[in-house]
Structures
1.
Amino acid sequence: MKRLTVLASIILIALSAISIAAQKNQGKQLTDAVNRVNDASAAINQIMRAGDKGIPRDLLNKAEAVVVFPSVKKGAFIIGVQVGTGVAIKRVGNGWSAPAFLTLGGGSLGPQIGGSATDLILLIMNDNGLKSLLNDHFEIGGEGSVAAGPVGRTAAASTSATLGAEILTYSRSRGLFAGVSLKGVVINHDDDKNLAIYNKNATQILGSPPVVSADAPSALQRLADTLATYSK
């Protein structure tokens, strides 16, 4: 009987330790998620306040979803490497969904040297573009129709650069870098974080129906609120 009591105590202690560790991990995941959403919101504010160098609002109004990778780290010496973390958010009626979390990585080969941090913003313009994004391991430039997005308040949405484009890309760079290319960059779902926060993966969060912003932790509302100030 004494052995059973000791064994039961050990099991209870172990279960308690596991529970505490899980709570700490969830708290850490949420803190990181909030920081990522805040950084993405700041990136949107900076590029939209750039006047004639900002994203045209008529294009933002037509976007089905927006993906933001703030401060993508790039480094190169002949072989280039890009790594970053970001968020994706889908239009839902007159508002936006809860943010899903993504990662970015890739490389390029060619005459390049230097390092920088770049805010990368993708406008997903239609269902086909969103479908591509919802596939894990989505390679930019390798799948779908991707084009460099036009800038400026009066840029025509029908410009030849955007005709038929499923995804429009924008970047804001800090530092020096040469030979930047989005080709070979792969977007993956950060489902460790998605599952920790929503108990859903990225496809479920952004799918049909998506997780609405009101069902996300209130600390993750900032990106939806920021996009609402620049789009209708």
Note: Residues 14-22, 109-114, 175-181 have pLDDT under 50 and may be disordered.
2.
Amino acid sequence: MFKGDEPAVGMVFRRAVGSARRLGHPRVGVEHLLVGLAGGDDVLAEVLARHGATSDALEETARAAAPLGAGAAADAESLALIGVDLDRLLLSGEPRSLDRLVRRQPLFPLGSGSARRRCASWDPPLGLDAQGAYEASLRLALARGERRHRPEHLAMVLASLDPGVDWVLVQLGTDRRGLLQDLERTFPPPQRSSMLRGARSLLRSTRQRHLVRRYQRTTGRSSIGPADLASFVAP
């Protein structure tokens, strides 16, 4: 039976909010989630540090992504190739306008009810990229047949799908493929019986496509490497 978030997931989001607050940023984006993931005292932080993604280095990169965040920085580089100046279009407006919901509200971290209301009242608030990453990582944990949703699921989704995280890793000189391989080795999916593996493999591609589509609808961005997610899903 799936038991929801481990307490460590909530700590990641609290550290992310603290990072955005320290930097004076108007929203919590995926760059701050990386700071939250790297700021723990656990194996995941060690994996990130091996690839140069320490909490201090990530916070400096988050500072460089202000005020619109790493996702917008990635968008700006892509649009500049076709002569569109995204900064000029957006900086005259409110950065939080990037997070206007156009579809149903995604899941919030830490469950529902009072926890959902608490997350909604955080200042600075969670951006849609952070919310979309949370929901996708929760679905990844379910697709892997895990009993709990843990921080490594969030790291897997961010490194596999998010263009803002890709932008951050490029700034750090981190090999994203190498990081993905390290995450795969360090956090393998749970072992299952041959009968259960066979039953789950029939739905593997469907689960993965649904996860990626939901992420893209929530964030309004295309994923960078949906095929990279396949290695994390239990067959």
Note: Residues 112-116 have pLDDT under 50 and may be disordered.
3.
Amino acid sequence: MSTIVIAPFSNSAIRDWPSAHFATLIDLLLDRWPERSGLIRVIGTPGQRPRVDSIVRTYPADRVTNDCGRMPWPEVVTELRTAACVVGNNSGIAHLAAFFDTPTVCIFGGSHQRLEWRPIGFNVTLLSRTIGCSPCHLDHGASCAYGLACLWEIEPGEVADAVMAAIVRGRTKQMVPREAHEGTIA
């Protein structure tokens, strides 16, 4: 059974795609990824578990699991290596999945310079919005005068499309130059 791994939180709220968008993304993935295909595992730290509960509580437990704080680090690493796709923010999880050459969709906010801080790899799709204030170099989401518009404007449908395309690329083992499938949105 294949797994899509979703890591909805980084260590800084300024880099986190909205929880409501992650919930919508899971809806879309469940519709597009047939039941026989696999499981969606949402991962994070034990402290992130209550926030992830609010994202996943309405989904069938046999398809979507909240594994925050439940897996030892070696198991997390194995999941990242073997996943059909990993979805995350600009975070260590996205960078590690990219390092393993796992199909990775990174939702990248405007707080950091993309060219300097993005995950690097042939199987990475970077989704971002460039708005007038980015990169802002802010440290906290509450500091953003624009309500994290750079993240809110990335639509769940765009992310779901990128995930499904990444899964297809991963299955066919195509090595497409990064520029040909990088999903940066200007």
Note: The radius of gyration is 15 Å.
4.
Amino acid sequence: MNKMNYSQDMIARFWSKVNYPGNDRDCWEWLAYYNFCGYGQFFIAKGQKISAHRFSWEFYNGPITNRLNVLHKCDNPLCCNPEHLFLGTTFDNSKDMVQKGRSARGSLQGNSKLSETDVVDIKRRIKAGESNSSIGQLYSVSPVTISGIRIGKNWNSVVI
């Protein structure tokens, strides 16, 4: 432990802000300040802060190299349990998010022009034999977008 040689005062301040459930299985939740994304923030010095889960990782495992991120197995941004943390790249983080079904899909995606109701109608029109161009014109999207729906590349979460 304390692979970073943090001072006893800093360690005491950190652990005073963590809800330790008495075991290493459950999440150790951060109780103090957190940012707009929900990640705990620990002020290590005036004007200097570090993510609480990152501090915990470094405390138990040492410095983080290669600009890696500290990711959560538990998907709880307030968790500081080192057993729930692992290192990865930004790509690894995105892949983990998609695999766990946490990425925005359908009309929740910021640049979506279609709604789930639109896609149901589009899929019905596709089944009826309408062309990608005619359906695209009707919904003000490109034929390529309709083709993506047709082949199941896009909007495969909408089933009719």
Note: The chain has two domains: 8-99, 106-150.
